[in-house]
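In this section we walk through a basic example: taking a raw amino acid sequence and producing a predicted 3D structure, encoded as discrete structure tokens. The instruction is simple. Fold the sequence below.
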Amino acid sequence: MIAAGGQSRGVVGAMLPLVLAAVLHQSLATVAPPTPAQTTAAPHKDPGRPERGTYNVTNANNTVCLLAYMGLQLNLTYNATSQNTAVQEVVNIKPNVTLASGSCEAERAVLELKTDANATVLTFVFTLNSTSSKYHLSEVSLTTTVPDLKGGKFSARNSSLDFLQGSLQYSYMCRTEQTLTVTQNLSINTFQVQLQPFGVTGDKFGAAVECQLDEDDMLIPIIVGAALAGLVLVVLLAYLIGRKRSHAGYQTI
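The resulting token sequence is shown next.
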């Protein structure tokens, strides 16, 4: 004589580890970061995470018209004369040796960062659409000294960008690291960005609107948690059904 309820509970107990393993495997596969693109350039040493800097621009009335608080990292690709091959160099912008300047107009704001006695000049241009009251990063240019490059100067510029989109009177915020591709030879990693190029009141940021990347990062644990909660509910229902059947009697072999 074998109890039918014992068989049901045994099946549920055997399936539980397999179902949990399957769900966890699927969850990890969902949140796994994408594989970075391959490159033939030889990478230099990673300088680590850059320090966040506060960069302000004032207008003719000596009032703040642009605010930025962010960490910046340059990714340069160039042909090194000493190695006769393409190399990648990663350079952190250091706030303690960086001077901020620029200009503010009705629909155009410029943030210029100069470091190391003007050896590096990084310029951001923001454009405001007065019809939609939306702004974005529309142009980036860079000139910097690279001793191992023929001529000793690296330069890049792109005036048709569409990054860091925000709304007038609000600041743009993105805690997630982003990579802004400027040209084939230049990209910029941004870290914990908060900026406001238009509609600044006083010297403080307006209410922040978070980027899509931050919202996606918040959704992932919610989705995983909901999936696990659903799994627990299914297993609990299977267990209760098994217990109910166990009271129906015994099966004769």
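Looking at the output, two observations stand out. The first strand starts at residue 2 and ends at 3. Residues 212-246 form the longest helix (35 residues). In the next section we compare this with other chains.
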